[in-house]
Amino acid sequence: MRTIRVTVWNEYIHEKKDTKVAEIYPKGMHTVIAEFLREEGFEVRTATLEEKDHGLTEEVLNNTDVLIWWGHLAHEKVSDEVVDRVYRRVLEGMGLIVLHSAHYSKIFKRLMGTTCSLKWREAGEKERIWVVAPWHPIAKGLGDYFELEHEEMYGEPFDIPPPDELVFISWFKGGEVFRSGCCFYRGMGKIFYFRPGHETYPTYYDKNVQRVIINAVRWAAPVERPKPRFGRVEPLEKLS
Amino acid sequence: MRTIRVTVWNEYIHEKKDTKVAEIYPKGMHTVIAEFLREEGFEVRTATLEEKDHGLTEEVLNNTDVLIWWGHLAHEKVSDEVVDRVYRRVLEGMGLIVLHSAHYSKIFKRLMGTTCSLKWREAGEKERIWVVAPWHPIAKGLGDYFELEHEEMYGEPFDIPPPDELVFISWFKGGEVFRSGCCFYRGMGKIFYFRPGHETYPTYYDKNVQRVIINAVRWAAPVERPKPRFGRVEPLEKLS
Amino acid sequence: MRTIRVTVWNEYIHEKKDTKVAEIYPKGMHTVIAEFLREEGFEVRTATLEEKDHGLTEEVLNNTDVLIWWGHLAHEKVSDEVVDRVYRRVLEGMGLIVLHSAHYSKIFKRLMGTTCSLKWREAGEKERIWVVAPWHPIAKGLGDYFELEHEEMYGEPFDIPPPDELVFISWFKGGEVFRSGCCFYRGMGKIFYFRPGHETYPTYYDKNVQRVIINAVRWAAPVERPKPRFGRVEPLEKLS
Amino acid sequence: MRTIRVTVWNEYIHEKKDTKVAEIYPKGMHTVIAEFLREEGFEVRTATLEEKDHGLTEEVLNNTDVLIWWGHLAHEKVSDEVVDRVYRRVLEGMGLIVLHSAHYSKIFKRLMGTTCSLKWREAGEKERIWVVAPWHPIAKGLGDYFELEHEEMYGEPFDIPPPDELVFISWFKGGEVFRSGCCFYRGMGKIFYFRPGHETYPTYYDKNVQRVIINAVRWAAPVERPKPRFGRVEPLEKLS
User: Fold this and answer.
1) pTM for the complete prediction?
2) pLDDT > 70: percent of chain D
3) Fewer Cβ in 10 A, N or C end of chain A?
4) Cα D108 to Cα D104: distance, rounded to the nearest angstrom
5) Three-class secondary structure assignment of B95-133
């Protein structure tokens, strides 16, 4: 099987302007994510908002099997042209993993067709993530649940289409629940939304979080098939 | 139970410029659809592209429980402002029934997040529509299948998200199949895509087609609930 | 529309042998459930384990649109013949509402095809039930969540097939989550599993719980259609 | 990755008593299926009805990752004990691929919880199998459709639960459609029902059919995780 090629995209702003975040992720969240993916044997590159084309040229995307997306402060600064490009590639089969506050990214909202709104609270409370799809490849190696001692809370309702597969449900100490691992199929592409990853906590160093993202990369990699044919066609059977 | 208020929207172009269509639908498809819905006891109005705001003002939409949409030639002439308005109302709970070539309407593509492309052929061939969700309210009163002697063919793949409920599958004489009755849930709204209804055939006079649309109106009517609350919230439980 | 005919089935054992339960439900849980359903205008009868055929004769079931089931101590005492009878009726279109500990009833396990096992704890802790399908008829009239001050805990994993529609997710103070409102379609029938209702708490007097059960009765009522035809058939089209 | 261990089970009766079938499958269908799976690199054994325990001892099943099942004439001769054993293994994570007339096998009906009835006709007519889940690993390498020149017809309604994923829809020359590739998740196990494979046609020599079964084996292989914990549990959080 061919090595899976991953591009990790990060808006990379918090890490440069907030000391607390910089201490946790001195080279940016994308660098930490890229590292544990490389150790797993994937071919990984990174891309950020400030690069030309946000680092997501046609050439980069055409050589990406799975794109990981983290954004928060600058969703509106992502150009529509790049969003269109990513959108087309997802429908062609490129996997997309949407992390945490990227629920509000242009690309996720466009693929979902809903507002992707939710409840939230920054109180560093405990999150316990329960597996509700015990058969799912993204749950490989996980027990019934895993915990993050401090995370931002996201709560229901989460304005997304009913997930095609619901893998995780989060419990928060403050009283809310959240569908925190959601799979969607769009075109030939697979999309996984994974909730954890607030910039002020060391979430992407957590071994269970890393395992989920690794599993998701394998799950989201494209299935090779000829492109579907759309448009006007002749009959396959004789019409009388 | 309150009377369901339906608005039937039609771009209303084919009927005015094509003699063959005008013979079948002299006052437009919307008028025929509105009539059989009125006979069922619904409160029905119509709206067309040429009206101010395409007949879909805030006031009209705020007083619409279920919107029916037929379009083909002029999808791009529907203003983005009106599309935004319809979009918001669907997420707030207004039902939406999308007919035939409106698979390519701006509003359907926006709610689906995919291209909504498909195969097609205009050969007036036979379509046989099979019920695959025997428990579904939209299948009420239907046998295992019903037939349309002459219809345009639509064939798979149909580039939509996996339907939340698949009600009908069509068989076409020329050799194709199509997921021709598809339910989607988005926000608080219900969406039903129903395939038949090419302008050159008298499809909307067919009693089974009428029954499906009547059933779909009842199914798609809004469920009354307080609006969901999104955004920043205080903890419901004490955090330690 | 015809009045919906409901049969409320209860094993009716706890209430007769446990003082604490008898104080809450002196005439049995089925009587309390039957009362609020009657007030809503449904035609309601009750049936219990000790009756001949457990009160579920062919005649009773043939005149039942929706069957509600509560059991806990005596699942194994329900005769296989009666289970077969209920099973056939569900596939023919009779709605089935399965309450709380009836997740382990013979009829639910048979319809699910899984063990229906779960985690549990009797500690009278708080349950907060969140709506995750804001468009769903069973959520009619409910806000984003409702609370039960004291309930038994049920926790994930819950060994059921992925629900065809997931309406509610419960948060429990002790740290668990649970898919507590689950819809399933089987044959022509609709099945709703609803978690709350431990016998030692006055759960079925709660107005939100009552509203859910009322909504579920309307949702689960049969859709009238001819019976599907199975078996050997002649071709509908000429074979060459 | 560990080699996937497949057991191909066949009732193996038609091939021994029907000359026409024997000519196509002189050593039984299981032998042909086993061969193309071995060529793909899987570790494959076969098992048949006439063997002790039908060849499905605890030891065999404990060393099987994916079980393939073909049966038709002798569903009732499969012992309940063996069915129980297979059932438990599927819920523990063993994949199950159910072929053609095995829709009526005890194990499939038990896992589905429905009758699994359908329409059928033996007329050797053309089947065209359309891909409706272009993103699905089971569709890997397939075009928009593939054809089988002669097959038995199976038609809707097919009395199964709504598939968790619908991969294929068949078109039949005689006028019917069928959901012919259906995925189900039960417990930790994955189940794939695949329609083609009537004993009087050389279907399992077809390269596309072989490809689908190979893809399905990979998809159905177990995901390694600790067993879920069910039953009474202590609180994870302090209860006040």
Assistant:
1) 0.98
2) 100
3) N
4) 7
5) EEEEEHHHHHCHHHHHHHCCCCCCEEEEEEEEEEEEECC
Length of chain B: 240
Residues B74 and B13: their CA atoms lie apart, in Å, by 8
Q: ipTM value of the model? A: 0.97
Asked whether residue A158 is domain-assigned, the answer is no
D80, with CB counted inside 10 A (0-12, 13-18, 19+), is: exposed
The amino acid that residue B157 corresponds to is P
A116-141 in b/e form (b: 16+ CB < 10 A) is: bbbbbbeeebbbbbbbbbbbbbbbbe
Chains near C, with 3+ CB pairs < 8 A? Answer: A, B, D
Q: How confident is the model at residue C13 (pLDDT cuts 50, 70, 90)?
A: very high
The reply to whether A92 falls in a domain is yes
- The arithmetic mean of pLDDT across residues C83-94, rounded, is 98
Mean pLDDT (chain C) is 97
Closest CA relative to residue A236, chosen from D54, D126, B199: D126
Q: Give the pLDDT band (50/70/90) at residue C240.
A: confident
* A153–chain C nearest CA distance, Å: 14
If one counts the domains in chain B, the total is: 1
- Is there a contact between B18 and B199 (Cβ–Cβ < 8 Å)? yes
Boundaries of domain holding D87? 5-220
CATH number at residue D158: 3.40.50.880
Query: Which of A161, A175, A185 has its CB closest to that of B185?
Result: A161
Helices (runs of H) and strands (runs of E) counted in chain C:
7, 10
Taking residues C126-154, what's their average pLDDT?
98
In the predicted model, what is the mean pLDDT of residues D216-224?
A: 98
Q: What is the mean pLDDT of chain D?
A: 97
Q: Is A87 part of any domain?
A: yes
**pLDDT at position B234 over 90:** yes
Task: Give percent above pLDDT 90 in chain A.
Answer: 99
Give the best residue of A92, A106, A115 to mutate against chain B (max B CB count within 10 A): A115
Q: What are C53's two structure tokens?
A: 């055929």
